[in-house]
Design goal:
Distance between the termini: 96 Å
Structural class: alpha+beta
Number of helices: 2
Order of helices and strands: HEEEEEEEEEEEHEEEEEE
Radius of gyration: 28 Å
Helix content: 10-25%
Largest sheet: 6 strands, mixed
Mean pLDDT: 79
Low-confidence stretches: 27-43, 164-170
Number of domains: 2
Shape: globular
Length: about 260
Amino acid sequence: MEVQREMPEPPMNQDEGKKAVMSQMKCIPKIAAALLFSTVGFAQVDIQIRFGQQPGWDPRAREGRCEVHIWVDHHAEVRIRGDGIFVRTLEGAKSYDEGSKCSQPLPYNSIGDFQIRQISGRNRVELLQQPNRMNNFTALVAINDEQGGGDHYAFEVTWHSEGGDHPKAPAPFFDDIRACQDAVRQRFLSKNGRGAYVDFEGQADRQNQNQGRELIRGRGTGKNLNESRDLTYSCDIDTRTGKVRSGDYQYSREGFRTNDRSRLK
């Protein structure tokens, strides 16, 4: 009886080997792309916009309101501060604004009777954080859309500016932290010249002083082309007149230097 033997495949020549390697390399970007898109639903995406102005816009009015329109798929957070809306997508497709408008900026100081009323959306809109001095007068709203496909959410927020009712209250539209950082930045640039800049970290700490004065302290990083150093800064603020009485910075430790030229001052 004749036994049939399998003949071994002939070895690939050099050109065929190159083609096989190239074919495998072409698959790598496709696999990476598939992995990337499989994790998109878990990414955090932030957008920041300036809201539109409603008819009768009046930054000095005692009463203010916003009508916020947001498209949300699954889970998002909405922050309102000053004249800006910040939308963070925590899960699902990217959320986006659909034409939010306000009658005035949310005051940077002295907000009372802050209310939220949902207008539309298939799930609940929840106020997580009232704007106050400790959070730099930032309202935080959560939207959880559990059904698939996303939905259009609208809610109204209203508030009362207390500055006009109390002579000793802070000026309602004076952003004291931003004013402090601007003063410190100008001092830093005057000492270090062109090519230098300072980045400020997160929210600053506030400490109320007597007679309408406030102490602000924070952290940041001063940089130029040759050096980077951590720093702390502080300001003395007159909250009634909306002015920075003084602002300065100090380096908290030695930084990283590429050479000894143009050291930070």
